[in-house]
Amino acid sequence: MANTNDPISDFLTRIRNAQIAHHASVSIPGSKLKRSLAEILERYGYVAATSWRDEGPQGFLDIELKYDDEDKPMITSLKRASRPSRRRYVKVDEIPKVLNGLGIAILSTSKGLLTDKEARAANVGGELLCEVY
């Protein structure tokens, strides 16, 4: 297993690569943050299902990928916004609308991981982790 300094980028890249290869599912080394990210993707219909396997020192997150009728992935784009070398923090009025509201931006806030719509409703800003559409 490769050592990575940015687990969120690794998470997004594994999903992106699995969809390009048309895999049915992908297994990712787990953490609470990755689990929350996967639950948000499942809640908004970008992935079919997520499950947790408690194996090894940190566990694994199994994500069942979702494709449309034409066998195209439901996720068109996964973009990492904030990086360890360049954090991107946004205030409530600076939270971007991804694809005019068709996509979602995921933020790490004081109230946990929230989508852009949830963060605006809760009136909180935070670190802009990624954009999905």
Write a structural description.
By secondary structure, this protein is α+β, with helices and mostly antiparallel strands. It has two domains: 59 residues, Ribosomal Protein S8, Chain: A, domain 1, CATH 3.30.1370; 55 residues, Dna Ligase, domain 1 (2-Layer Sandwich), CATH 3.30.1490. 25% of the residues lie in helices and 30% in strands. It contains three helices and eight strands. The longest helix has 14 residues.
Instruction: Characterize the main sheet.
Output: 5 strands, antiparallel
Give the class from helix and strand content and strand pairing. Answer: alpha+beta
CATH class annotation of the largest domain? Alpha Beta
Instruction: Tell me the number of helical segments per DSSP (H or I, 4 or more residues long).
Output: 3
In angstroms, what is the radius of gyration? 15 Å
What CATH architecture label of the largest domain applies? Answer: 2-Layer Sandwich
* Low-confidence blocks of residues: none
Helix content: 10-25%
Structurally, the number of domains stands at 2
Q: And the CATH topology of the largest domain?
A: Ribosomal Protein S8, Chain: A, domain 1
On the 0-100 scale, what is the average pLDDT? 96
Termini separation (Å)? 29 Å
Order of helices and strands: HEHEEEEEEHE
Overall shape: it is globular
Family: Belongs to the universal ribosomal protein uS8 family.
Keywords: Ribonucleoprotein, Ribosomal protein, RNA-binding, rRNA-binding
GO molecular function: rRNA binding; structural constituent of ribosome
Subunit structure: Part of the 30S ribosomal subunit. Contacts proteins S5 and S12.
